[in-house]
Specification:
The complex is a heterodimer of chains A (about 150) and B (about 180). By secondary structure, chain A is mainly alpha-helical. Helices cover about 80% and strands about 5% of the residues of chain A. In chain A, helix 2 crosses helix 3. Chain B has one domain (about 1-175). Classes of the chains: A mainly alpha (about 150), B mainly alpha (about 180). The interface between A and B is large, with 47 and 51 residues.
Amino acid sequence: MVGLDCQRTGPTYNGLRESNLFENEADLMSRTSIDVIVTCLLFVSGVTWTVYTYAKRDRLAFAMVAILAPLLAVLSLIRVAYLVITSQVKIGPCPDGLAEAEVAVEQERQRLFGGDLRTPTLAASWQRAYELELQREAERVQRIAQRYLVHA
Amino acid sequence: MIESFSGFLQHNLIVLLAVVLVPMKLGILRLVGDGDAQKVAFLSIPEDLVYVSLGLVLGDFATSGGAFRKHFATSSHVPMDLFVTIMIGVIVAITIHVLAKWANDQVESWRAASGARMRVMSSNPLQGELGLEPADSSIRMIQVRHISLVSILYLLQLAVAIRWLAWIASVLGQRITG
């Protein structure tokens, strides 16, 4: 009787039938895949619509940038983490005219949408980071030079 | 079989609501002729979804044999669980609203950069040949920065809203399958 019952219900795991477990897993996977597809569909439509609505030039380029930005951000974070771990981080100089361009953009934003004039931070932060990098490099060179001078 | 299929369908219908909502919203805005609202229709979709999800939760609480009461039936403190569910819904709504505000700020800055770039290029027809490339590339860099931030913030909003909606859909789906 017991054997018959086992044949009918199949093996159990934590009170759940094995076939039920597989059904639940398949169900969960299909639901998750639908959630991911819906998110991706809305994301691509949303950013493309926004770019095509507002951009006056380089629409395709900006749409591609917007679609790929999250992926690139993740890859960049991984790369930065790798560079930090291997002490290979190099910060280049701030491009000429970036601070002026930021001020011009901020003034244009205030002209178009109102509100307070905000202080741009990108160029200043970049410049500060570059100066710190130079300072660290100079200290390193100084340390090496002192070591060799002492030995000489 | 039929019950689990209908539960699966209900879950997906609620999540696919997001996709159905977009053409409906665009159609209604087109019908009304509100061009400005039409432009930001997509950007406000996560906020719409989060309010829809709050409506679903509150609508379910209004019924005595609701799916959430059934979901928390084994708990020894059901009212507390229901209260926490509402609070999480409110926190999700606040989070998405804050993210949407940041995203809108970035959209404004990106549009301003576009405007500034157009003005630089169009103020003098000869400027393109007067070595103004650095200024243009700087503004382009600012544009790329703002549009990338818009994109990341928008994806975050969507991910949070749809994940929350999917959980609510799974609870509501249990009413049929359970």
